[in-house]
Amino acid sequence: MIQDDHDYVWHPFTQMGVYSETDPIIIERGEGSYLYDVNGKAYLDGYASLWVNVHGHNNARLNNAINEQLGKIAHSTLLGSSNVPSIELAKRLVEITPGNLRKVFYSDTGSASVEIAIKMAYQYWKNKNPEKYAAKKKFLTLKNGYHGDTIGAVSVGGIDAFHAIFKDLIFENIQVGCPSLFKSDYETEAELIESITAEIREILEKQSEEICGFVIEPLIQGATGLYAQPVRFLKEVEKLCREFGVLLIVDEVATGFGRTGTMFACERADVNPDIMCLAKGITGGYLPLAATLTSQEVYDAFLSGSHAEKTFFHGHTYTGNQVTCSAAIENLNLFEETNLIAHIEKTSALLKSELEALNNLDYVGNIRGYGLMYGVELVEPKETESPLSIATVEKIIQTCKENGLMIRNLENVITFVPVLNMSESEIKKMTDIFKNALNHVMHETIA
Ligand SMILES: *Cc1c(COP(=O)(O)O)cnc(C)c1O
């Protein structure tokens, strides 16, 4: 099977030249917080199968919801007709998201949800007044942002390692500083917020006529290495967007559905966006579904009495698929019934204290995050400024896997993004395996 994997499968975000030199773990099944490979070895799922899994693997309720829907129909189109679960889910999403958001546009990946947000925001201004808003064709974005891998999403992204190669294909945007205290020259949160908001204000004063919207990962910039923002920053961004008439587009693909400890990151900052992108956790991590939510105001700008006029010409074949929407509805039911947000409050406090206990180690740098989304930066012992070598970081990850923990690094940052309903004892087990691997590898390296 390993040979067939090497022969036939091209893996995402993977240097296949390196991958093909290793024996990959091949997962066969899952149960609760655990993944099992083809040899029956168990791994605690410390990355929630790439930040998606909510209620555990092989969850009977989610399985039943999917099976029940399959007994009725798997898929029919939303183009010109509708279906039962997509209507119910849209209503539920509008009920639980911030008050401005009234309409749900479905798609199937986080990247597509951002692509849709960008096109929606752009066309919103054209529909409102094509002459007055003729210059509006750029987006304000944050340095180190990640919004997905399609060309529009790459255009609003800001991670050179992923995006630089495509620079001739993307459209131009305006990037502002990265609001992360530990990556900046500022000593205090207040200084950081003041400096970046001043930068944003200056850009908006000069160029708001060219800007359709501000695209932001709220509270945590994920893929760049879990850069946590001060909560108040998002509120300041919201105020500036309102003042200068620019749409606020929050990419909650990673942060949505409990990941940062509240159902949505916007909630913690008391922010009411114009557009919100959702994916990853929306189906509990079971099936590919995404949604772009927007306000009545944006929606109304697309209305007309004639088919070709002001219409949003965007859609995907599987938009609003019944099976994925059914899983998403059951995901929301389980959130309520298991009181998951309250559970995360406890496990988040435990994860934070377990990780912060590592602070006194020579090779542990910054520790940051919210909810169940934490990054631990590893640095060279003694010269704490320089990142730990990737070879050593990979050795730590490898040791974690050998000891039954599935976890990933983003450069020299170890990411803790576990299954959301993980128990307190599983959280403790996860951090214990990591600590032991760290001790083991670093001891070896120092010796
Ligand atoms: C993962 C992610 C995306 C892209 O989602 P895909 O489903 O992988 O296309 C977009 N934005 C953020 C913040 C993400 O974390």
Number of helices: 16
The counted number of beta strands is 17
Low-confidence segments, given as residue ranges, are: none
Question: Helix/strand-derived class?
Answer: alpha/beta
State the separation between the terminal residues, measured CA to CA: 38 Å
Spell out the CATH superfamily of the largest domain: Type I PLP-dependent aspartate aminotransferase-like (Major domain)
Q: What is the domain tally?
A: 2
Mind describing the biggest β-sheet?
Answer: 7 strands, mixed
Mean pLDDT: 95
Any idea of the CATH class of the largest domain? Answer: Alpha Beta
**Percent of residues in beta strands?**
15-25%
List all distinct small molecules, including ions and cofactors, that are bound in this structure: pyridoxal-5'-phosphate
How would the global form be characterised?
Answer: globular
**CATH architecture classification name of the largest domain:** 3-Layer(aba) Sandwich
Provide a descriptive summary of the structure in words:
This protein folds into two domains: about 1-55 and about 340-445, Alpha-Beta Complex (Aspartate Aminotransferase, domain 1), CATH 3.90.1150; about 65-335, Aspartate Aminotransferase, domain 2. α5 crosses α13 and α14 runs parallel beside α16 (about 425-445). The strands form four sheets. A seven-stranded mixed sheet has the order 4-12-11-10-7-5-6, sandwiched between helices. A four-stranded mixed sheet has the order 1-2-3-15. It is an alpha/beta fold. The mean pLDDT is about 95. β1 and β2 (about 35) form a beta hairpin. Helix content is about 40%, strand content about 15%. It contains 16 helices and 17 strands. The structure holds pyridoxal-5'-phosphate. Pyridoxal-5'-phosphate binds near residues 109, 111 and 217. It catalyses: (8S)-8-amino-7-oxononanoate + S-adenosyl-L-methionine = S-adenosyl-4-methylsulfanyl-2-oxobutanoate + (7R,8S)-7,8-diammoniononanoate. It is an enzyme of class 2 (transferase). Belongs to the class-III pyridoxal-phosphate-dependent aminotransferase family. BioA subfamily. Its cofactor is pyridoxal 5'-phosphate.
